[in-house]
């Protein structure tokens, strides 16, 4: 059973940003926010690890990106063929 945090997600994000942008000690910021300093330290460390790990890539999204890139390449080839055909027929009509 997971324990639900009493702090909203946006509050945590704002507190982490405040710690990262401020020159003040973490303990002072925690005191001003009314949060236990170890709780705030935990939020900051968790956010730092998540940032270092980078985005988690979903295999379904990666497959979709590959499929769409292939489709874009095919459409670009078709467009180039049609452009050349239009240029060819334009010169034929001028004769």
TrEMBL record:
<dbReference type="InterPro" id="IPR002514">
    <property type="entry name" value="Transposase_8"/>
</dbReference>
<dbReference type="GO" id="GO:0004803">
    <property type="term" value="F:transposase activity"/>
</dbReference>
<dbReference type="InterPro" id="IPR051839">
    <property type="entry name" value="RD_transcriptional_regulator"/>
</dbReference>
<dbReference type="GO" id="GO:0006313">
    <property type="term" value="P:DNA transposition"/>
</dbReference>
<protein>
    <recommendedName>
        <fullName>Transposase</fullName>
    </recommendedName>
</protein>
<dbReference type="GO" id="GO:0003677">
    <property type="term" value="F:DNA binding"/>
</dbReference>
<dbReference type="Pfam" id="PF01527">
    <property type="entry name" value="HTH_Tnp_1"/>
</dbReference>
<dbReference type="InterPro" id="IPR009057">
    <property type="entry name" value="Homeodomain-like_sf"/>
</dbReference>
């Amino acid at each position: 059973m997971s324990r639900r945090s009493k702090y909203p997600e946006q509050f945590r994000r704002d507190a982490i940003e405040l710690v990262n942008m401020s020159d003040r000690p973490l303990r002072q910021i925690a005191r001003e926010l009314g949060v236990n300093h170890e709780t705030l330290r935990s939020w900051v460390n968790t956010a730092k690890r998540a940032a270092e790990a980078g985005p988690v890539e979903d295999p379904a999204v990666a497959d979709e990106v590959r499929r769409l890139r292939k489709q874009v390449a095919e459409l670009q080839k078709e467009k180039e063929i049609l452009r050349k055909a239009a240029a060819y027929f334009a010169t034929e009509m001028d004769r």
